[in-house]
Specification:
By secondary structure, the chain is α+β, with helices and mostly antiparallel strands. The protein is 23% helix and 35% strand. The chain has helices at residues 5-40, 131-136; strands at residues 45-48, 57-60, 85-86, 92-100, 109-117, 122-127, 139-144, 149-155, 160-167, 172-180.
Amino acid sequence: MPIDLRRSFVYLKEEPILRNNLLTCSIVLVAFVASVGSASAQKIKVVRDADSANILTVKKAGADLPSGDLADSVEKDGAGKSTLKLSSDKRYEASSFCVPSRSSEVTDCVHRVFIVDLQDEEDYEIVGEELFIEANRLIDNLKWIDDHTLSYDRWAGPHFGHRYVVDLKTMKQTGAFTLSDQ
């Protein structure tokens, strides 16, 4: 079978173009992966917020606490994980629930943190944020700092939020912080 030299010459001529295209695609892919990695690794700036330092109170939960099997009603955080958290000494259990707002202004439920004192068998809820904030913003990063201090975040958008700290021994808010990735 005879070899068509014109075809072989065209193939050799196009090979550098294919290599250049492959190199360009590889560089673009590496740049994209690097930018996604750096975006997800951004540091969150945390600054003390004196204006929000005393807005929350801890009160005995009344009719706001959902009835029935509470495990079915526990809200999920921004990552899709349950907000149900047990303190290290196993005395307190905290979780977020979406409860009726009891307001004609907000027809949706509001997201609130509830604490169960397993030793005294008392239920508490954290209240004090504005109604529209509770209605439109999920609870995130709910965690126990120590045996009796609870912390949680509430994001106002993708780049701004608040972190609240509440002490269950004193039943008072002990801190508030502004969160930002800007």
